[in-house]
Protein backbone atom coordinates (compact mmCIF):
# COMPACT_ATOMS: atom_id res chain seq x y z
CA UNK A 1 0.00 0.00 0.00
CA UNK A 2 1.18 3.52 -0.80
CA UNK A 3 -0.03 6.30 1.52
CA UNK A 4 0.71 9.99 0.96
CA UNK A 5 0.65 12.74 3.59
CA UNK A 6 -0.08 15.70 1.34
CA UNK A 7 0.56 18.35 4.00
CA UNK A 8 2.90 18.19 6.99
CA UNK A 9 5.47 20.40 8.70
CA UNK A 10 8.86 18.74 9.14
CA UNK A 11 10.76 21.78 10.42
CA UNK A 12 13.73 21.44 12.72
CA UNK A 13 11.86 23.40 15.39
CA UNK A 14 9.39 20.49 15.68
CA UNK A 15 11.99 17.72 15.33
CA UNK A 16 15.19 19.03 16.94
CA UNK A 17 16.59 15.49 17.20
CA UNK A 18 16.19 14.87 13.48
CA UNK A 19 13.77 12.86 11.38
CA UNK A 20 15.25 9.35 11.47
CA UNK A 21 12.65 8.02 13.92
CA UNK A 22 9.84 9.86 12.13
CA UNK A 23 10.87 8.23 8.86
CA UNK A 24 11.02 4.82 10.51
CA UNK A 25 7.47 5.22 11.80
CA UNK A 26 6.12 6.31 8.43
CA UNK A 27 7.79 3.30 6.81
CA UNK A 28 6.09 0.99 9.31
CA UNK A 29 2.73 2.49 8.33
CA UNK A 30 3.01 2.51 4.52
CA UNK A 31 3.46 6.29 4.26
CA UNK A 32 5.81 6.58 1.31
CA UNK A 33 5.43 10.20 0.22
CA UNK A 34 5.08 13.48 2.14
CA UNK A 35 4.65 17.15 1.25
CA UNK A 36 6.60 19.51 3.51
CA UNK A 37 4.50 22.67 3.88
CA UNK A 38 5.93 26.17 4.31
CA UNK A 39 4.93 29.33 6.16
CA UNK A 40 7.38 31.95 4.87
CA UNK A 41 10.48 32.34 2.71
CA UNK A 42 12.81 30.81 5.31
CA UNK A 43 10.70 27.69 5.82
CA UNK A 44 10.20 27.42 2.06
CA UNK A 45 13.99 27.20 1.72
CA UNK A 46 14.13 24.64 4.53
CA UNK A 47 11.43 22.51 2.90
CA UNK A 48 13.01 22.64 -0.55
CA UNK A 49 16.44 21.76 0.85
CA UNK A 50 15.14 18.72 2.72
CA UNK A 51 13.10 17.55 -0.27
CA UNK A 52 16.12 17.78 -2.58
CA UNK A 53 18.45 16.09 -0.10
CA UNK A 54 16.10 13.16 0.61
CA UNK A 55 17.17 10.55 -1.93
CA UNK A 56 15.98 7.52 0.06
CA UNK A 57 12.47 6.61 1.20
CA UNK A 58 10.20 8.31 2.05
CA UNK A 59 9.85 10.67 -0.90
CA UNK A 60 9.57 14.30 0.15
CA UNK A 61 8.20 17.19 -1.87
CA UNK A 62 7.96 20.81 -0.77
CA UNK A 63 5.71 23.84 -0.89
CA UNK A 64 6.97 27.41 -1.27
CA UNK A 65 4.78 30.22 -0.02
CA UNK A 66 3.86 32.72 2.67
CA UNK A 67 1.07 31.79 5.10
CA UNK A 68 -1.47 34.53 5.85
CA UNK A 69 -0.20 34.69 9.44
CA UNK A 70 3.16 35.88 8.06
CA UNK A 71 1.83 38.24 5.39
CA UNK A 72 2.69 41.37 7.34
CA UNK A 73 6.35 40.31 7.55
CA UNK A 74 7.15 39.86 3.85
CA UNK A 75 10.10 41.71 2.34
CA UNK A 76 9.89 43.68 -0.92
CA UNK A 77 11.77 40.83 -2.63
CA UNK A 78 9.72 37.92 -1.28
CA UNK A 79 8.04 37.04 -4.59
CA UNK A 80 11.38 36.86 -6.39
CA UNK A 81 12.76 34.73 -3.55
CA UNK A 82 9.80 32.35 -3.68
CA UNK A 83 10.07 32.10 -7.44
CA UNK A 84 13.73 31.08 -7.16
CA UNK A 85 12.89 28.44 -4.54
CA UNK A 86 9.95 27.13 -6.57
CA UNK A 87 12.24 26.51 -9.55
CA UNK A 88 13.43 23.38 -7.73
CA UNK A 89 11.71 20.34 -9.27
CA UNK A 90 10.95 19.04 -5.76
CA UNK A 91 8.79 22.12 -5.05
CA UNK A 92 5.40 20.96 -6.28
CA UNK A 93 3.15 23.93 -5.45
CA UNK A 94 2.88 27.48 -4.11
CA UNK A 95 1.62 27.28 -0.56
CA UNK A 96 0.34 27.36 1.91
CA UNK A 97 -1.25 30.69 1.06
CA UNK A 98 -4.66 32.22 1.64
CA UNK A 99 -6.66 34.15 4.23
CA UNK A 100 -7.08 33.60 7.97
CA UNK A 101 -9.69 35.80 9.65
CA UNK A 102 -9.88 33.64 12.77
CA UNK A 103 -6.56 34.77 14.25
CA UNK A 104 -5.93 37.92 12.16
CA UNK A 105 -2.18 37.78 12.83
CA UNK A 106 -1.75 40.04 9.79
CA UNK A 107 -4.12 42.85 8.77
CA UNK A 108 -6.75 41.60 6.36
CA UNK A 109 -5.87 44.02 3.58
CA UNK A 110 -2.26 42.82 3.78
CA UNK A 111 -3.37 39.19 3.72
CA UNK A 112 -5.41 39.86 0.59
CA UNK A 113 -2.54 41.60 -1.18
CA UNK A 114 0.00 38.89 -0.39
CA UNK A 115 -2.46 36.16 -1.35
CA UNK A 116 -3.19 37.87 -4.67
CA UNK A 117 0.51 38.29 -5.45
CA UNK A 118 1.14 34.61 -4.82
CA UNK A 119 -1.77 33.51 -7.01
CA UNK A 120 -0.12 35.48 -9.81
CA UNK A 121 3.22 33.83 -9.01
CA UNK A 122 1.66 30.36 -9.27
CA UNK A 123 0.11 31.23 -12.63
CA UNK A 124 3.40 32.62 -13.94
CA UNK A 125 5.43 29.53 -13.01
CA UNK A 126 2.67 27.05 -13.80
CA UNK A 127 2.44 25.35 -10.42
CA UNK A 128 -0.71 24.63 -8.39
CA UNK A 129 -1.76 26.44 -5.23
CA UNK A 130 -2.24 25.06 -1.72
CA UNK A 131 -4.80 27.11 0.20
CA UNK A 132 -5.11 27.85 3.91
CA UNK A 133 -8.46 29.47 4.70
CA UNK A 134 -10.23 30.08 7.98
CA UNK A 135 -13.25 32.27 8.67
CA UNK A 136 -13.69 34.52 11.68
CA UNK A 137 -15.37 32.76 14.60
CA UNK A 138 -18.54 34.57 13.56
CA UNK A 139 -18.50 34.27 9.78
CA UNK A 140 -20.48 37.49 9.44
CA UNK A 141 -17.40 39.27 10.80
CA UNK A 142 -15.00 37.71 8.30
CA UNK A 143 -15.99 35.40 5.46
CA UNK A 144 -12.49 34.29 4.47
CA UNK A 145 -13.82 31.34 2.48
CA UNK A 146 -16.09 33.53 0.40
CA UNK A 147 -13.25 35.96 -0.31
CA UNK A 148 -10.77 33.20 -1.17
CA UNK A 149 -13.03 31.62 -3.78
CA UNK A 150 -13.94 35.02 -5.23
CA UNK A 151 -10.25 35.91 -5.59
CA UNK A 152 -9.40 32.54 -7.11
CA UNK A 153 -12.17 33.01 -9.69
CA UNK A 154 -11.31 36.62 -10.46
CA UNK A 155 -7.62 35.86 -10.93
CA UNK A 156 -8.12 32.76 -13.05
CA UNK A 157 -6.54 30.35 -10.58
CA UNK A 158 -8.38 27.48 -12.23
CA UNK A 159 -5.62 27.67 -14.87
CA UNK A 160 -3.21 26.03 -12.39
CA UNK A 161 -5.63 24.43 -9.91
CA UNK A 162 -4.79 23.50 -6.39
CA UNK A 163 -5.81 22.10 -3.03
CA UNK A 164 -7.92 23.39 -0.16
CA UNK A 165 -5.81 22.02 2.65
CA UNK A 166 -7.30 20.80 5.94
CA UNK A 167 -10.80 21.65 4.75
CA UNK A 168 -12.95 23.21 7.48
CA UNK A 169 -15.56 25.17 5.55
CA UNK A 170 -19.24 24.70 4.81
CA UNK A 171 -20.88 22.63 2.09
CA UNK A 172 -21.11 25.64 -0.23
CA UNK A 173 -17.35 26.18 0.17
CA UNK A 174 -16.63 22.62 -0.92
CA UNK A 175 -18.90 23.15 -3.91
CA UNK A 176 -17.07 26.36 -4.83
CA UNK A 177 -13.69 24.61 -4.60
CA UNK A 178 -14.82 21.72 -6.77
CA UNK A 179 -16.31 24.06 -9.36
CA UNK A 180 -12.89 25.71 -9.65
CA UNK A 181 -11.31 22.33 -10.27
CA UNK A 182 -9.57 22.30 -6.90
CA UNK A 183 -8.99 19.23 -4.75
CA UNK A 184 -10.14 19.00 -1.13
CA UNK A 185 -7.85 17.62 1.56
CA UNK A 186 -8.98 16.29 4.92
CA UNK A 187 -6.93 15.97 8.10
CA UNK A 188 -7.42 14.72 11.66
CA UNK A 189 -10.51 16.85 12.42
CA UNK A 190 -12.65 14.68 10.13
CA UNK A 191 -12.22 11.91 12.75
CA UNK A 192 -13.40 14.00 15.73
CA UNK A 193 -16.73 12.86 17.20
CA UNK A 194 -18.30 16.33 17.08
CA UNK A 195 -17.43 16.92 13.40
CA UNK A 196 -20.38 15.15 11.81
CA UNK A 197 -21.00 18.08 9.45
CA UNK A 198 -17.44 17.79 8.14
CA UNK A 199 -17.87 14.06 7.59
CA UNK A 200 -21.07 14.68 5.64
CA UNK A 201 -19.18 17.10 3.39
CA UNK A 202 -16.35 14.60 2.92
CA UNK A 203 -18.82 12.03 1.67
CA UNK A 204 -19.94 14.43 -1.09
CA UNK A 205 -16.43 14.96 -2.49
CA UNK A 206 -15.82 12.84 -5.60
CA UNK A 207 -13.25 10.10 -5.14
CA UNK A 208 -11.05 11.63 -7.81
CA UNK A 209 -10.83 14.99 -5.99
CA UNK A 210 -9.98 13.99 -2.41
CA UNK A 211 -6.64 14.08 -0.58
CA UNK A 212 -5.46 13.11 2.92
CA UNK A 213 -3.02 14.90 5.21
CA UNK A 214 -1.98 15.35 8.81
CA UNK A 215 -0.99 19.05 8.99
CA UNK A 216 1.37 17.64 11.62
CA UNK A 217 2.51 18.55 14.20
CA UNK A 218 -1.00 19.99 14.61
CA UNK A 219 -4.48 18.41 14.66
CA UNK A 220 -3.75 14.82 15.61
CA UNK A 221 -6.54 12.39 14.67
CA UNK A 222 -8.88 10.93 17.26
CA UNK A 223 -6.93 8.40 19.28
CA UNK A 224 -3.76 10.51 19.18
CA UNK A 225 -5.14 13.80 20.48
CA UNK A 226 -3.16 15.43 23.23
CA UNK A 227 0.20 14.49 21.72
CA UNK A 228 2.26 15.78 18.82
CA UNK A 229 0.85 14.75 15.49
CA UNK A 230 3.19 12.96 13.07
CA UNK A 231 2.99 12.06 9.37
CA UNK A 232 2.38 8.37 10.07
CA UNK A 233 -0.92 9.32 11.71
CA UNK A 234 -2.26 10.05 8.23
CA UNK A 235 -3.10 6.35 8.12
CA UNK A 236 -5.93 7.07 10.57
CA UNK A 237 -7.37 9.66 8.17
CA UNK A 238 -7.23 7.16 5.30
CA UNK A 239 -8.85 4.45 7.40
CA UNK A 240 -11.64 6.76 8.54
CA UNK A 241 -12.45 8.19 5.12
CA UNK A 242 -12.31 4.80 3.39
CA UNK A 243 -14.78 3.52 5.99
CA UNK A 244 -17.10 6.51 5.38
CA UNK A 245 -17.00 5.87 1.65
CA UNK A 246 -17.46 2.13 1.97
CA UNK A 247 -14.24 1.36 0.11
CA UNK A 248 -11.41 -1.05 0.89
CA UNK A 249 -8.46 0.87 2.35
CA UNK A 250 -6.09 -0.12 -0.46
CA UNK A 251 -8.53 0.99 -3.17
CA UNK A 252 -9.07 4.34 -1.46
CA UNK A 253 -5.33 4.82 -0.93
CA UNK A 254 -4.63 4.15 -4.60
CA UNK A 255 -7.21 6.75 -5.62
CA UNK A 256 -5.67 9.36 -3.30
CA UNK A 257 -2.19 8.58 -4.63
CA UNK A 258 -3.39 9.11 -8.20
CA UNK A 259 -5.11 12.35 -7.20
CA UNK A 260 -1.86 13.69 -5.74
CA UNK A 261 0.05 12.70 -8.85
CA UNK A 262 -2.52 14.45 -11.03
CA UNK A 263 -2.57 17.78 -9.21
CA UNK A 264 1.10 17.98 -8.21
CA UNK A 265 2.56 16.45 -11.36
CA UNK A 266 4.48 13.71 -9.60
CA UNK A 267 5.99 11.22 -11.99
CA UNK A 268 5.81 13.44 -15.05
TrEMBL record:
<feature type="binding site">
    <location>
        <position position="165"/>
    </location>
    <ligand>
        <name>a divalent metal cation 2</name>
    </ligand>
</feature>
<dbReference type="GO" id="GO:0004536">
    <property type="term" value="F:DNA nuclease activity"/>
</dbReference>
<feature type="binding site">
    <location>
        <position position="96"/>
    </location>
    <ligand>
        <name>a divalent metal cation 1</name>
    </ligand>
</feature>
<dbReference type="GO" id="GO:0016788">
    <property type="term" value="F:hydrolase activity, acting on ester bonds"/>
</dbReference>
<keyword id="KW-0378">Hydrolase</keyword>
<feature type="binding site">
    <location>
        <position position="9"/>
    </location>
    <ligand>
        <name>a divalent metal cation 1</name>
    </ligand>
</feature>
<feature type="binding site">
    <location>
        <position position="215"/>
    </location>
    <ligand>
        <name>a divalent metal cation 1</name>
    </ligand>
</feature>
<dbReference type="InterPro" id="IPR032466">
    <property type="entry name" value="Metal_Hydrolase"/>
</dbReference>
<protein>
    <recommendedName>
        <fullName>Hydrolase TatD</fullName>
    </recommendedName>
</protein>
<feature type="binding site">
    <location>
        <position position="7"/>
    </location>
    <ligand>
        <name>a divalent metal cation 1</name>
    </ligand>
</feature>
<dbReference type="InterPro" id="IPR001130">
    <property type="entry name" value="TatD-like"/>
</dbReference>
<keyword id="KW-0479">Metal-binding</keyword>
<dbReference type="InterPro" id="IPR018228">
    <property type="entry name" value="DNase_TatD-rel_CS"/>
</dbReference>
<dbReference type="InterPro" id="IPR015991">
    <property type="entry name" value="TatD/YcfH-like"/>
</dbReference>
<dbReference type="GO" id="GO:0005829">
    <property type="term" value="C:cytosol"/>
</dbReference>
<dbReference type="GO" id="GO:0046872">
    <property type="term" value="F:metal ion binding"/>
</dbReference>
<dbReference type="Pfam" id="PF01026">
    <property type="entry name" value="TatD_DNase"/>
</dbReference>
<feature type="binding site">
    <location>
        <position position="132"/>
    </location>
    <ligand>
        <name>a divalent metal cation 2</name>
    </ligand>
</feature>
Amino acid sequence: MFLVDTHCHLNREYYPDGLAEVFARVADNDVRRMVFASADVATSREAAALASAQTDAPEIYALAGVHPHEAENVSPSYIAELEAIAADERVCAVGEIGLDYFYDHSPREVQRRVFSEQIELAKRIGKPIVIHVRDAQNRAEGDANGEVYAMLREQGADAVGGVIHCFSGHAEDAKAALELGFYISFAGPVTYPKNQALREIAMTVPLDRILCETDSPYLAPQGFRGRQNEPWHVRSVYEYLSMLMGLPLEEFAQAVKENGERIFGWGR
